[in-house]
Amino acid sequence: MTRSGTGDAAHQLDLLRDMMAIRQFEERCAELYSAGEIRGFVHLYSGEEAVAVGVSQALTADDSVVSTYREHGHALVRGLPLDAVMAEMYGKATGCSGGRGGSMHLFDAGRRFYGGNAIVGGGLPLAVGLALADKMRGISRVTACFFGDGAVAEGEFHESMNLAALWNLPVLFCCENNRYAMGTALERSHSQPNLALRAASYGMPAWPVDGMDVLAVERSAGLAAEAVRSGGGPHFLELRTYRFRAHSMYDPELYRDKAEVERWRERDPITALADRMRADGEVSDAQITVIEAELTAALDAAVAAARDAPVEPVESLTSNVYAPGAV
Amino acid sequence: MTSGQTRQHRPRAARKRPAEPVTITYREAMRAAIREALQRDDRVFLMGEDVGRYGGCFAVSLGLLEEFGPERIRDTPLSESAFVGAGIGAAMGGMRPIVEIMTVNFSLLALDQIMNNAATLRHMSGGQVGVPLVIRMTTGAGRQLAAQHSHSLEGWFAHIPGLKILAPATLEDARGMLWTALADPDPVLIFEHGSLYNVSGTLPADAGPVGIDRAAIRRPGRDVTLISYGGTLGKALAAADRLAGDGIEAEVIDLRTLRPLDDAAIIDSVSRTHRVVLADEGWRSGSLAAEVSARITEQAFYQLDAPVQRVCGAEVPIPYARHLEQAALPQPETIAAAARAVVG
Fold first, then answer.
1. Are B225 and B305 within one domain?
2. Cβ–Cβ gap B92/A166 under 8 Å
3. CA of A175, closest CA in chain B: separation in Å?
4. What is the DSSP letter of A108?
5. What is the set of active-site residues of B?
6. pLDDT tens readout for residues A214-271
7. Quick one: B246 and B329 in the same domain?
8. Within its chain, how far is the Cα of A307 from the centroid?
9. In this structure, what are the phi and psi dihedrals at residue B9, rounded to the nearest 5 degrees?
10. Which of A119, A144, A265, A114 is nearest to B128 (CA)?
11. Which residues of chain A lie closer than 8 angstroms to B164, CB-CB?
12. What are phi and psi of B173, to 5 degrees?
C-alpha cells in the first residue's frame, strides 16, 4: 500500500460498507421506481460507487461539494441522512429538499452539499464561484465538483476550467467518465477522448484514475485535494468508470451491447474490493452478510418512514421562490 | 445624518453636511453607488468583462480599479456563463458580488446560469440555498449599435420567478437602487438603458439608497396614464409635455421595478385617469407591456373608458441606420398620439 490509511483493514471495511450502501440504495430505488412509488427522472449510480466513496475520503466536513443529477451516491457519502434522501425520492416534506427537488436535486446546505444540478456542466461555474468566495475570504477549503464526460463537451466546462486555473482557485474537478453522455459514446462525441488531456491544456494538473478501484481513487483524490488545499490551484481527476444500469429509468439501452456491460460488471468495484479483502483475510462472507442485512434494515426503515412522512401543504407551493418575508 | 467617517472603511475628508445639490451624470451616479457599496461592505466586489483596466465598456467603473484593486474590481475572460455562474457560487459562498454584463444581448450566453441556477436554487433546495447576487447590464437601443447590442430583453427576465428586475430611469435610482439590491437576499438584475449614461442633472450631495418595491409617479395628471420605465421614461415625459400643450394632463408612471410589478400604483392611477398608454421598447408580442395591460384588464376593467394602448418596439431586429432604428422605437410623438387617441 502506498499511503497510510488505505491499507488499514478497518478503513477498507468502511469503504466497502459505503459502496454497498450506495448500491443497495440504488437497487432499492430501481425497485421503488418500477413499483410506481417514486417518479421523475431517476439516474442510478450503480457501478460508479468507487468514485464517490474514494473522493469523499479526501474531503473534510468543511469542504464543499457540487454534484450532478446522478448524485445519490455523492449525497449519501457526504452524510446526508438516509431518511432525508429517501423522503426526497418520495417528494415528502421531510425530504432533504422539502420535496421540491426530487432525485436530481438533493441539497444540504449545512453539509455544504450544493446539489444535484441537472444541467450538464451547469454546476462547474458554481464550484468556481464557491472557491472564489473561499479564496477572497481567506478560508482554506476545497470545493469538489463532480460532473460527467458529457460535460466536457459543454462550453461551461471550458469557461470554468479557464477561470479556475486563471485565478488559481481551490477546486477539485472530478470528472466521472462513465463513457456515455446519456446514449452517446465518448468516442462519438469527443475529438479528443482523453479527457485529462483536455483539462491539462488549461495548465492544471490532470490525470486519469481507475474509477473502478476505490483505493486508487482514494489515493489520487488524496494527493489532488492536498495540493488544492495547500494553494496548488485547481486539479482535475478523470475517474474512468462505468454505469451498470441504464442512463435513467426510461432508457431501453439501445446504444450499447449487453456484452460490454457484462465485461464491466466483472470489474464491479464492490466485488473487487471484497475479493481483495477476502484474499487478505480482512473480511469474511459472514461479515459481508451482516453488513448487507444492516443496510437492508436501514433502507427498510427509511422507506417506511418516507411512505408515512407528511407531504408539503399545497398552500406552501410558492414558498422559497424568494426569501421569507420578501415579495 | 452625521459624517460617515465612522461607518466607512476608508477615512474620507469629512463631508460638509449634505444639502447643496451636485451635478452628476447617470454614469457617475452608478459609479458612486458601486463605490459606496465597495466601501461599506467587504463582501462586495465587481466582476465582469473590462471592468478594471479598461474602466468598464461604458466607463461606469472608471477609476475603481485604482481605488479598490484587482481582487475587488475583477476583470474576467469573455466567459459570460462562467463568470455569472461564479458570481452565483460566490454569493452562495458568502460574498455579495456585483456582476456586470456588457449588454443584455450578451446575457443570453449566461441565461442558463441566471435561469437554471440563480432563479431556481432557493426553491429547488427547499429554501436552503439563497443567491444574494446583483447582475448589472446595459439594455436598449438608440445608439446605432444594430441587432446584437440593442435589444430590450428585460421583459424576458421579468418572466422568471426567483428574480427581481430593476430599471433605474433617473439619477436618483441610478445612485440609490444598487445598495438596496445588494441587501436583498435574492438575485436582482439591474438594467441600465445605454442612452441614459450621459444624462446629466442634479442630486443631493447625500443621495443614498432608495426603495426597490414601488413604482413612482414622475408627473401627476388626471386625463391619461402613461406607463413606462428605463430609457423610455424620458420619452413618456416628453410626450406628456406635448399633451399639456393640447390641454391633456398626462400622469407618467415609472415602473422602476419590473418584477415584482407594483400593481397597486398602476391600478390606482388608472382608476383616477380611466385611460392608459404603455410605452415599452421591448417587442409588443409577449411583452412586459402585454403583462401590465393584462393586469389592468384583470383588476381595473370597469375603470377603463378606452382600450389600453401600447406603444412598443417594432417587431424587427434593431437596424443600424439611424432613421430605421428610430422608427423601430417608441417616440414622444407616437406616445402622445396614442394618448390623444384614448382621450379622444
1. yes
2. no
3. 18
4. B
5. 80, 149
6. 999 999 999 999 999 999 999 999 999 999 999 988 888 999 999 999 999 999 999 9
7. yes
8. 25
9. -70, -40
10. A114
11. 322, 327
12. -75, -35
